[in-house]
Amino acid sequence: CPRRRASLLPIFLIPKLKEEHGLQNLSLQFADSALLKTIREYTREAGVRNLERELATICRKIAHRVQMNSI
Question: Which residues have C-beta within 8 Å of that of residue 14, sequence separation ≥ 6?
Fold first, then answer.
């Protein structure tokens, strides 16, 4: 169920991804609608492996932009 996966993301997956990409000092938040859209349109499997990959891509882009603005 997409809503169930979306409800678990802020507790488990998003903090992990923020730490892995050096974004723990940012108040990075994902809108529920954005998470649901990502789950529905970009992930095909029932688990969270593909979802983690998609969110990691977003985190890398944010980290890159933060890095470019801090130079």
Answer: 28, 30, 55
Contact between 33 and 7 (Cβ < 8 Å): no
Contact 17, 55 (CB under 8 A): yes
Phi/psi of residue 62, nearest 5 degrees: -65, -45
Distance CA 65, CA 71 (A): 10
Over the stretch 15-60, which tens digit does the pLDDT of each residue have? 999 999 999 898 888 888 888 888 888 877 767 788 889 999 999 9
At 18, the amino acid letter reads K
